Amino acid sequence: MIIAVDGPTASGKGTISKALAAHFGLPFMDTGMLYRAVGRQVALNGGDADNAADALAACDFSDSLLDNPVLRDEATGGLASRVSIHPQVRAALNKRQVDFANQPSGAVLDGRDIGTVIAPHADAKLFVTATAEVRAQRRFDEMISRGLDVDYENILADIRARDKRDSERADAPLKPADDAMLLDTSDMDAKEAVQAAIALVEACVDSTL
Ligand code: CDP
Predict the structure, then answer these.
(1) Does an H or E element contain 20, and which?
(2) CATH architecture of 2-208
């Protein structure tokens, strides 16, 4: 079984995807980490994330970079969003994701274009959303708990900017696949969101038996 999970930043898709993978016994790929690695590598190379050639050159990052906690930083997320606009970068990262999706065991992948581009044939597709304000509050709480000095309004502005860039790009924009199940987690805590996601996937898989 292939499960595709897409949605905007801080929607809860990462937590949901990991829980789905554990529940259904499937391997999991967080595809955002690939774009984050490219964004980070551009910075390490002294390149410009908005320049297609610089971004493409950064696609040969070393796999060890994927384990580096710096990839989780907000700054790296912003670079990832910028490099992910370039079709050459998306093409360079495509095979790795497609191969992961199509391995014999099945898989769970989360990202922006899993249900539309990487695995349009997925057995279950979830599009996880929440209002920008709720997502900013989640990110704010998480960063405060890590001891960071952050401002809610700045986080909200960053989230809106990232949503706009991800949704308006020409190649593989963030949008639900026609056959995706929408899951709005605005009024759910993490546990409720995970339970709702498992129920949606089980109902979807049952209906195809
Ligand atoms: O964790 P968060 O939702 O903040 O971001 P992420 O999933 O790690 O993705 C970082 C950035 O990579 C996103 O803002 C997208 O621009 C890009 N991305 C993408 O274009 N396609 C994907 N399949 C995954 C991420």
Answers:
(1) helix 13-24
(2) 3-Layer(aba) Sandwich (3.40)
